[in-house]
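Data card: per-record layout.
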Amino acid sequence: SEQRARGIDFAVQMGFPLGPDTSIGFEVRGTRALENSITRDALSPTLERNGLSGFPKLTGNAEARLRWKKLTWYFGANYIGKVDDTRYWDDEGAFVPGTTNFKFFGAYAGRKVYGNSNDFAELRELLSVPAYVTAYTSIRWQILEKTTLLAGVNNVFDKQPPVIGPDAFTYRIGSVAGNQYNLTGRSFFLRGNQAF
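The structure for this 196-residue chain is written out next.
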């Protein structure tokens, strides 16, 4: 098997003094995936996963920070680009012609027997989700030269992760579109750090 991943990482940082004890800074970081493919064996075709659920083409974060004496306030956002599984299923010939409804031959969805090419359930699935952004904020206090205290909030606006694949007409349940999403919702934290 072979797995290939190529992309471009980028980062921009700026900082400015605002006074004798005050400064402001900005940072933007991200990754633009160009390829994320897997070939299971010599007889299998290569699957290009870039842009499919779990493999967004663009991810990143932006952060601003304001430092005043021994306090530093951070505010930032995490970004996960849109994903769309339509092309994967289209390549598999899984759609009812002229629609994005699935042909399903299984016995779930209230059916008691398996179907065939002339007798199948027609399912509607959510195959794409838009970009996803969460915000965070924290404040750090430099208590002593080697002692800091950090308090903050992740996912400030309690944004739920997007779900891909639910079907209102069957017993199926959708799932989160990849492992990069915030699954716990808003959370608070407090951390202490002591260097030696």
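Known properties of this structure: DSSP finds one helix and 14 strands in the chain. Residues 37 and 117 are 31 Å apart (CA to CA).

See the next section for split statistics.
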